Amino acid sequence: MAPRDQPVAVRARVIRVKICGVNDEAAFDAAAEAGADWVGFVFFARSPRCVTPARAAALSSRVKGGPVRVGLFVEPADAEIEAALAHFKLDVLQLYAPAARVAEIGARFGVPVWRAVPVTGPGDLPASIAGEAALVVEPKPPPGATRPGGNATPLDWSLLRAWRPAYPWLLAGGLRPDNVGRAVAESGAAAVDVSSGVETAPGRKSASLIRALVDAARRERAPG
Predict the structure, then answer these.
(1) Global pTM value
(2) Each residue of 142-170: pLDDT tens digit?
(3) Cβ-contact 71, 94 below 8 angstroms
């Protein structure tokens, strides 16, 4: 298992994996035992993966050390983040918010922040970052979606072939055990963020799919 304070590495040889939307004991244990680098807790009421801070704290307490704990928030008020941090330590805040607000939250709480970046074309790929620890690159939500992110739809990975930023980033959107290898090969990603691709139904993680996803990602190698 990777230590909780291990940073994102741009040139890591082994592909790193985040299992997001962990909301029960079996999923948390499977992610930790499989060697996932990060586990994500979703604090967004519209998501079928949403957990309360108390529930996330109870799950996190199952393993000392292990995966880095990431809290996902959508356009959060400071009070939402304060409530989560009052229950347990989050190592990273993953945020759906404008860049200026992300910077404000990072400065306010002193916790590394990841910013979600929705992409439809090469022009959406940022050339630089402004204090974020990493970016999460994913498709824009489909029309009519009630939640941010790709909503189980893969990004056109070919958009990323010539994009080699000098900062850390994770690839998200529609990743599954059967396509994560191709996604990494086509995009050049050194890290992936997976949620619905290891579920049997929305919000219901599968321990076997988590293990399969991590295994499939580990068979790939990051560039550099």
Answers:
(1) 0.90
(2) 666 666 766 568 999 999 988 989 899 99
(3) yes
The distance in angstroms from the start CA to the end CA of the chain is 23
At residue 2, what are phi and psi to the nearest 5 degrees?
-80, 140
Mean pLDDT estimate for the chain: 91
Beta-bridge partners for 179: none
Place of tokens 């291990």: 6
Nearest to 49 by CA among 208, 195, 197: 195
Helix axes 207-218 and 25-34, enclosed angle (nearest 10):
20
- Summarize pLDDT for 76-120 with one digit per residue, the tens: 999 999 999 999 999 999 999 999 999 999 999 999 999 999 999
SS (H, E, C) 27-39: HHHHHHHHCCCEE
Place of tokens 């191709």: 182
Q: Which residue has the tokens 């949403």?
A: 50
Show the domains of the chain with their CATH numbers. 16-218 (3.20.20.70)
According to DSSP, the β-strands at 92-96 and 113-119 are parallel
Separation between Cα atoms, residue 223 and residue 86, nearest integer Å: 39
Residue closest to 121 by CA, chosen among 88, 162, 152, 167: 162
Closest Cα partner for 96 from 112, 124, 118?
118
The radius of gyration computed from the CA coordinates of the chain, to the nearest angstrom, equals 16
